Amino acid sequence: MILLIEPISKNIDMYIPAYPLPLIEIASFVQSKLPEIAINIVSISADYGLPLTREGKEQIYKELLEEISEIKPRGIGISCTAIAQAEETIHLCDLIKNHDPDIFVFLGGYFPTIYYEEIFSRTHAVDVIVIGEGEVPALEIIKRLERGKNPRDDDIPNLAWKKDGHVHLTRKGARFDLNTKALLNLELLRNPGVYDILPYAFSRGCPYNCNFCMEEFIRPIRKKVSLKIIQKDLRNLKLHTKAHTLLVSDALFKSFDLFPLLRSLGMKINFETRCDVMDPSIVSKITDVCGMLALGFESASYSTLKRMGKVRDRDHYQYYVSNTIAIFKEALKNEIPVTIFMIAGYPGDTEEDLEKSLIFAKALSKNSGIGGHIFKIGECRVYPKTKLYYHTVSAPDVVFDDNGVFGENIVRQSSKNLRFETVLAYMTEIFSLSNNTPKMQRTVLNMMPFFRLPVHALSDKMIPDECFRDADREIFDVQGKSLVAFRELVPGITKKHKKWISGQRSHRTLQF
Ligand code: B12
Ligand code: SF4
User: Fold this and answer.
1) Which residues line ligand 2 (CB under 6 A)?
2) How confident is residue 99, by pLDDT bands cut at 50, 70 and 90?
């Protein structure tokens, strides 16, 4: 038996009741090659609950370890996509190894791919880290484990481990051939029926190399999944789930030609794309099938976008901005909810840059539509090892919380005379220009039931006991029935906790 686990994320704000796509991709691939091996995927939040307190978390881990004792897996693979999962991932590895040192623990995902050295310096509980795409290395690891061998004894590509104080890296393998991608096998999930949202990646990778992004570490070239595989996958999803929303998980989505196929599924498709790759005339043709459209806009300032590596020159900038306006207007005209993602206080930003974004948001928000719009703006984080990190540490006037790969790394002063309070004030003002129409509220609630809520709002007495997995109300039940009841209450809870809604992200982070 092999267990694959999606750990807890501390960021509740962006919690999406979606199956862990990376683990299903890997498990389906391994299962298709080794059908005789039992593989099971656990999503801690979906299958055990979302812990709101330390006690709740301890209860969940106790249950998980009891189960591990029963099923006795030879290996446990853990996926760590976001920084918000990193500390819990390490804690979980420690717990598993202390519980049973014979279980082979392996990790994969963005975080371990980029920060394997930092993980090894924190824990001895990880036997191997898989660098980059996990399908082929996981297959080879699991093959060896099932034969009773140590995967470190053979020359499996894209692995890292630490021995005698040194990190050992195996040879770099080729990119995963997406033509060999397995069909998603939902039966490998513990509770396939509990997910409201179906994530799917039509392609992997992005060639743009924006300075703040991590994509270039893992897949700097975009490759597409074949139409044949997509068709089969989507038909299976339709057949085996009751969910009606597909969440596009491409780094760079531009498969607009697939909308006729997507339409035939009878689902709503939520996707994010770049502001300069989508033709605004497409919007009116996808009205019936697009649930929500998101644009990674980031800023309206030429100087900021140039520092981000988002635009090449003035001409590109003009196109970037005018295309954003055109897509936005089309979305409103066609009653599609639209989210504009923005970053405030990017290193080098002056108040003038923030003002440009504010003026832009003010102008855009003069247009209104039933679909509504959200300016989802957040403070800037400087992820170590990205190009942005190296620029930032060498910029004399920029101050950020340089608290390592596990930290928040928030930019506190983006240029000499710009105070963080000023950045927060702009964020609040820009966010308040959102038009949270009933349609937008329904769409967001469906996908992100805890969107913008502070953690303490989930303990509010208004929430009935049926939304919790335990009598002490320390573990939130995020399976369908509980979320249905919770969603009903969200307008009231949001009103009650209004002052926190546009505040800093730290209020939306679980504190263990
Ligand atoms: C979809 C998505 C989301 C969805 C998640 C929905 C869901 N539950 O699936 C939403 C919108 C919620 C989201 C939110 C956020 N996201 Co996001 N998201 C993505 C996105 C676009 C796709 C992830 C995905 O499914 N990829 C497809 C799978 C197949 O690829 P993969 O994850 O890389 O998995 C492969 C390998 O990594 C490896 N692997 C992964 N796990 C494992 C495990 C084992 C055992 C092994 C062997 C291998 C392995 O093998 C897999 C298959 O080849 C990625 C970018 C991208 N294109 O991947 C960003 C990305 C993961 N998100 C990112 C960020 C920053 C965020 C936010 C913090 C944004 C914000 N500012 O709020 C939040 C945090 C959310 C949280 N809860 O913590 C960053 C992560 C950076 C980081 N390390 O923190 C990414 C990488 C974007 C980027 N390029 O910078 N996100
Ligand atoms: S376009 Fe998006 S995914 Fe691509 S590098 Fe830039 S931020 Fe990353």
Assistant:
1) 206, 208-210, 213, 215, 251-252, 274, 296
2) very high
Alpha carbon of residue 367 to chain centroid: 30
Residue in 343, 316, 259 with CA at minimum distance from that of residue 293: 259
Going by alpha carbons, the residue nearest to atom 1 of ligand 2 is: 208
For the chain, what are the domain ranges?
2-169, 196-447, 458-500
> Ligand 2, closest atom to CA 213?
8
Query: Could you read off the pLDDT of 188-225 as tens digits, one per residue?
Result: 999 999 999 999 999 999 999 999 999 988 899 999 99
**Contact in structure between 218 and 265 (CB atoms under 8 Å):** no
Produce one character per residue of 366-387: b if its CB has 16 or more CB atoms within 10 Å, e if not: eeebebbbbbbbbbbbbbbebe
Q: Which residues, including other chains, have CB under 8 Å from residue 239's CB and lie 6 or more apart?
A: none
Q: Which two tokens stand for residue 288?
A: 């019936």
Q: CA 306, CA 293: separation in Å to the nearest integer? A: 24
Q: Is the CB of 384 under 6 A from ligand 1?
A: no
Q: Which among 81, 114, 208, 305 is the best mutation to test ligand 2's pocket, defined by most ligand atoms within 8 Å of the CB?
A: 208
Return the sign of the alpha-carbon dihedral for residues 356, 250, 19, 241. positive
Sequence-distant (6+) residues with CB within 8 A of 461 are: none
Q: How far apart are CA 57 and CA 48, in angstroms?
A: 10
The pLDDT tens digits for 68-90 are 999 999 999 999 998 899 999 99
Q: Write down the pTM of the prediction.
A: 0.95
Q: How far is the CA of 456 from the centre of ligand 2 (A)?
A: 33
For domain 2-169, the CATH architecture is 3-Layer(aba) Sandwich (3.40)
Nearest alpha-carbon partner for 363 in 329, 318, 323: 329
**Tokens of residue 207, six digits:** 């060639």
Tokens of 87: 């500390």
Fold adopted by 196-447: pyruvate-formate lyase- activating enzyme (3.80.30)
Q: Is the CB of 225 under 6 A from ligand 1?
A: no
Separation of CA 282 and ligand 2 centre (Å): 21
Atom of ligand 2 nearest to the CA of 216: 5
From ligand 1's centre to the CA of 82, what distance in Å?
Answer: 6
The Cα-based distances of 428 to 131, 357, 362, 424, 459 in angstroms read 39, 12, 13, 6, 25
H/E segment holding residue 218: helix 215-218
Which residues touch 174 (CB under 8 Å, ≥6 apart)? none
- Say if CB 327 and CB 278 are below 8 A apart: yes
Among positive and negative, which fits the CA dihedral 436, 437, 439, 445?
A: positive
